């Protein structure tokens, strides 16, 4: 009998996933310090851009009285936010790949 503690369901599931990835030929390599730095810079840049459009949106929406114009501005804001988020995620993924 071994002295090792029994594995949790999480640990067992992670082992199965690792084996499945190995069988499929998917290799996971840890990211480098340069990649971490690049990812942090990307996140900081897009966090600032998202905050900027949030502030602009809030300042514009307060002055709009017409509900249709407010709805149009909300939709534009959501579209801009989604675009920036998508750009950020794509750049992070490229940075991870090296």
Give an account of the 3D structure.
- This protein has 98 residues and is mainly α.
- The chain has a domain at 31-97.
- The protein contains 3 helices and no strands.
- It is elongated and about 70 Å long.
- It starts with 8 loop residues before the first helix and ends with a helix.
- The mean pLDDT is 90.
- Describe the global form: elongated
User: What is the CA-CA span between the terminal residues?
Assistant: 45 Å
Order of helices and strands: HHH
**Unreliable stretches, pLDDT < 50, 5 or more residues?**
none
Largest sheet: none
Radius of gyration: 22 Å
Mean pLDDT: 90
What structural class do the secondary elements suggest?
Answer: mainly alpha
β-strand percent reads: under 5%
Helix content: over 70%
Counted beta strands? 0
Task: Supply the number of helical segments.
Answer: 3
Name its key features.
98 residues; mainly alpha; 3 helices
């Amino acid at each position: 009998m071994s002295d090792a503690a029994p594995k949790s369901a999480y640990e067992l599931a992670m082992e199965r996933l690792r084996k499945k990835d190995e069988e499929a030929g998917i290799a996971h390599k840890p990211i480098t310090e340069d990649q971490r730095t690049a990812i942090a810079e990307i996140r900081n840049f897009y966090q600032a851009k998202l905050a900027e459009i949030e502030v602009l949106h809030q300042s514009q929406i307060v002055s709009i009285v017409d509900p249709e114009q407010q709805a149009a501005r909300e939709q534009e804001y959501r579209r801009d936010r989604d675009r920036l988020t998508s750009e950020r995620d794509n750049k992070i993924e490229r940075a991870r790949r090296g």
